Amino acid sequence: MLAAEQTIHHLPSPARTRLNPTSNLDMKYAFPEQVEAVAEIQKLFTVSDQQLAELVKRMGEEMQIGLERDDASDLKMIPSFVTGYPTGQEEGVYLALEISGMDIYVCQVKLKGQGGKLAINQYQYKIPAALATGQDIADLIDYIADCVSDFLVRVGSQDLFVYPMAISFGFAVEQTALNKGYIIALGHGFDYANGVGCDVVELIHSRFQRKGLSVRVVAIANDTVCTLLAHAYQHPSTKLGIVHSAGTNCAYYETMDNISKLQTNANHNRSSSDGSDMIINTEWCNFGSKKKYLPSTWFDRKLDRESNNPNVHIFEKMTTGVYLGELVRIVLIHLVDNEMLFGGESSEVLNTPFSFDTSYMYVCENDDTPSLDGIRVILEDMLKVGATSMADREIVKKVCEIIGERATMLVGAGTASVVQYMVEHGIGMDLDGSGFAISISGDIYEDYPQFHPRVCKTLKKMLPEHIAAKLSVGIVKHSRIVGAAIVAMMAEKA
Predict the structure, then answer these.
(1) What are the b/e assignments for 181-219, b being 16+ CB within 10 Å?
(2) Distance between CA 304 and CA 48 in Å, rounded?
(3) Does the N-terminal or the C-terminal CB of the chain have fewer CB atoms within 10 Å?
(4) Where are the transmembrane segments (predicted)?
(5) How far is CA 281 from the centre of its chain?
(6) pLDDT of 135-190, one tens digit each?
(7) How far apart are CA 102 and CA 160, in angstroms?
(8) pLDDT in tens, 186-216
């Protein structure tokens, strides 16, 4: 059995810290012309304090508009129908299913109470590439049912016991009740002719029944909602959750009175709520798509134009794991074309879209060896650009720093906006003046060493000191699926 693994971090002290993007290029090997070219790149990607403040303001406005009516805001503000707060004292055995990218995770969670003690038993399954596309999404659901069946055999399920299960989807789902929702957008890499608009819970119920599974789906939850609750069971003050990995999203607790579209939209099942605070899935990945609030460059616009989903998910394209490496690659190609890098010679690999994996940025930024040998391996062995000079490696490192820095500033400002909105609208700070915790999960956030401290620095800068000083950030590692089990528990006790 695996214990849930979580790490809590407090924000830096409330003393003001000046937030400077990479203002000193500090380049030892590049020629003056190369330094000037990189300085131009840095200038394009620099985000001013005024631009950050505008982002904080505009995202808060979009949140409010999205709570009033559908399709009026960049932010979908989808009600999760998960209400109330876990206490850490709840007990029981629950199943959870998570579909994340091309991975399926099936998990049995034993909640032990006692202030958030739990144990998990989890297996991971891969979705075959052939099942990522097709005419009938039921083919994918049948495979998922087979995975759940295999899991129940492995853990030794009890006879005559029907396990309550909650499902966490990476797909965008518009929920109309805790256990009812329609797919409104498939995840990255998935394409089914009948996928969008499908009632996913009803479909899963029917396919599970055909397989004879002793499972009852009691709830469906977005992966960001699960990130929030996975931390909240052990840290009940948690009121905001963020996923930042291949994509990004944010969920937070909202007062029922503020969700005015629940009162006006006949598609929403208002009886699903008991009046408690409800978790809202913001879908902030799409911020800046319709209303151009983000400080984009022509590099960003090129990336968006050539993507498989132009004009949507702009915030995601400027900050997350699928796109950051590609943004670096586009900048490097620009420098090559201007004969400022690799002697003006590229390679077939580097010319291939998405060949510069975002994980390469971690290596480049953290390479402090005298010869920048880690960067050399990436450029020469992975990207096949031929022999590189110290100036080449230095420039690549600097480009990674510049683009990585901007991404963290945008995420930090977005988080600050949600926090500011929550405090201004009656969520977050308790009557005794105590603050709340923010839960974050995702490979890029966990694996990119500079990401967390930079986000916290921006978050602190963009919030009043009396608010920033009362926040803490918990990084949820390997146990986001626990949140789905918490959703199942809360659904059973509702």
Answers:
(1) bbbebbbbebebeebeebebbebbbebbeeeebebebbb
(2) 22
(3) N
(4) none
(5) 11
(6) 999 999 999 999 999 999 998 877 768 889 999 877 778 888 899 888 888 877 78
(7) 32
(8) 877 788 999 899 998 899 989 999 999 989 9
Amino acid at 144: I
Range 396-421 average pLDDT: 98
Q: What is the pLDDT of residues 64-85, one digit of tens each?
A: 999 999 889 999 999 999 999 9
pLDDT given for residue 264 in this prediction: 67
Between CA 419 and CA 248 the distance in angstroms is 17
Taking CA 79 as the corner, what is the angle to CA 90 and CA 6, rounded to the nearest 5 degrees?
45
Question: CB–CB of 97/105 below 8 Å?
Answer: yes
**How far is Cα 355 from Cα 178, in angstroms, rounded to an integer?**
40
**φ and ψ at residue 109, rounded to 5 degrees:** -115, 125
What is the share, in percent, of the chain residues with pLDDT greater than 90?
71
CB 280 within 8 A of CB 252: yes
C-alpha to C-alpha distance for 93 and 291, rounded to whole angstroms: 45
In Å, how far are 3, 7, 118, 226 from 485, measured between CA atoms?
Answer: 14, 20, 11, 8
Q: What is the pLDDT of residues 350-387, one digit of tens each?
A: 999 999 999 999 999 999 999 999 999 999 999 999 99
Strand pairing report for 180-185 and 172-177: antiparallel
pLDDT at 20 over 70: no
Q: Does the reported pTM lie above 0.85?
A: yes
C-alpha torsion angle, residues 3, 116, 216, 476 (rounded to 10): -60
What does the mean pLDDT of the chain come to? 89
Domains of the chain, earliest start first: 86-235+253-270+478-488 (3.30.420.40)
Tokens representing residue 103 in the block: 């991975």
For residue 261, with 0-12 CB atoms within 10 Å meaning exposed, 13-18 middle and 19 or more buried, which class applies? middle
Please identify which residue in the block is written with the tokens 């500011």.
Answer: 420
